[in-house]
Amino acid sequence: MSFLLKVLASAAGLAAAAWLLDGITITGDTDNDRVITLLVVAVIFGVVDGFVAPVIKVLAIPFIVLTLGLFLLVVNALMLLLTSAIADAVGLGFAVDGFWTAVIGSVVISIVGWIAHLVLPDGR
After folding, report:
1. How does pLDDT run across 1-31, given as a tens digit for each residue?
2. Which residues contact 74 (CB under 8 A, 6 or more apart)?
């Protein structure tokens, strides 16, 4: 159940970012196609954030300390761009146009995900 809640929180963040930013797009023929694309991209984003991001964060510890944590915005933006590249390679209708769009999008996704985790039960 926890995995499903995390996917839904990520999907909500991705949907909010796509709604707020012109550079993040989710395409599909019907609303159902867009929802399915959003859920699959949320799973991809969760896998990237769960496996790739920790390795990058460990390697980037000197930069994170030097910038007082601001480099984490760059890491999160790169994870969103990687998710977009994987979604494009798989043939999903999800795209992020540019680095700065990814930075702002990652901030939006983080805020919406944080709010969703506050609202949704976590099983504890």
Report:
1. 588 888 888 999 999 999 999 999 999 899 9
2. 103
Task: Provide the angle, in degrees to the nearest 10, between the axes of the packed helices 2-20 and 31-47.
Answer: 120
Strand ranges inside the chain, DSSP E: 24-26, 94-96
Angle at 84 between CA 58 and CA 50, to 5 degrees: 35
DSSP assigned state of 88: H
Instruction: Give the model confidence (pLDDT) of 31-53 as tens digits.
Output: 999 999 999 999 999 999 999 99
Say whether pTM exceeds 0.85. yes
Rounded Cα gap, residues 26 and 35, in angstroms: 9
- For 86, the token pair is 């994987």
pLDDT in tens, 84-117: 999 999 999 999 999 999 999 999 999 998 898 7
* Burial class of residue 36, CB neighbours in 10 A (0-12, 13-18, 19+): middle
The span from the CA of 105 to the CA of 59, in Å, is 23
